[in-house]
Amino acid sequence: MSMNKQLKYGVSTWLWQSPFTTESIELFPKIKTMGFDVVEIPVENPDLIDANTVKEALSANGLTPTICIVFGDDKDLTSEDTSLYQNCFEHAEKCFELATSLGVGFVAGPLYAAVGKARLASKEQKKMEWNRAVKNLKMLSGIAKKNGLDIALEPLNRFESDLINTAEDVVRLLDEINESNMKIVLDGFHMTIEEQDICKAIQAAGDRLIHVQVSENHRGIPGTGLTPWDEFAKGLTDVNYSGAIVIESFTPEIPELAAAVNIWKELANSQDEFAKEGLKFLKSTFNTL
C-alpha cells in the first residue's frame, strides 16, 4: 500500500532567489546536500537561463528538475485583449523548449490568467472568461504536445484568482478542455484557504494529479501551521501519487517577490533552515504511511 518508495522531495529556488538565472545553479550543491532529490526552477525570464549549463549542473549534483511558470499582468488567456494571448503563447513556448532541453516532462503553474486577477465579476463576464480560458488552453495544450510535454494547471486562492480556486474547479476546466496532456498540480498553501476537505480534493484530482507543492497555511515551514497533513498524506495514498512533493515559499529579501506574494516578515530564522526543517517534517509525515 505504501507509495513512498517512489516519492521524491524537492524545493523551489524561489525560497532563496528571484528570478532564476544561469548563475542560480550555485544553489544546487546546497540543495542536494540538504537531502532533496528535486529542484523546482521557476522560469520568470527564459532568456536569463542557459539550458546546457543548467543541465550540466543538475547532472553534476544528482538533481531532477521541475519547472513552473506564472503569468504576469501582460499575460492572460481570459482577457478580452487578444494581444495578451500571444504574450502567453510566446513565453510558454520558450519555457517549453527549456523544459524539453532539461528533460522535464511537464510544466506546472496557473497558466490560465494573470496572477492576482481577482474581482467580483458578473455571471456573464465569468462565463466569457471561462470560455476564453478553455479555448486558449486548448491552443496551449497543442504547443505543449509539439514539445512532448504535459501542462499541470494550478488552482490559486481567491486573493490571487477568481477563475480556478479548488481541485473541483480545475477538474471541471480540464473536462471542458478535454486534452490528454492537461493535468493538475495542487499547492497545499492554496488548499488550506479554499478546500473544505484536503483529502477529498486530492481524490477529486485523482490520477490527473502529477505534481504537489507545499508550505504551511501561513506560507511558512511545513509542520508549523494548520495544514491537516495526515489528511494530505491519506489523499496522496488514495490516488497512488508517485510524483514530487516540492516546498514552495519565498524569500522576503527580494522586495518585488515579497510584494507579489504578500510576505512581509521572515518566516524562518533563515531560508536554509526553512528548507531543512521542512524536508525533515515532510519525510516524517509521508514516509510513515
Explain what the structure shows.
The relative contact order is 0.15. The longest helix has 24 residues, at 123-146. An eight-stranded parallel beta barrel has the order 1-2-3-4-5-6-7-8, surrounded by six helices. Helix 3 links the parallel strand 3 and strand 4. It has 289 residues and is of the alpha/beta class. The chain has ten helices and eight strands. The chain has helices at residues 28-34, 51-61, 83-101, 123-146, 167-177, 188-194, 198-205, 229-238, 255-261, 271-286, and strands at 8-12, 38-42, 64-68, 106-109, 150-153, 182-187, 209-214, 244-247. The protein is globular and about 50 Å long. Helix 3 runs parallel beside helix 4 (123-146), helix 4 crosses helix 5 (167-177) and helix 5 runs parallel beside helix 7.
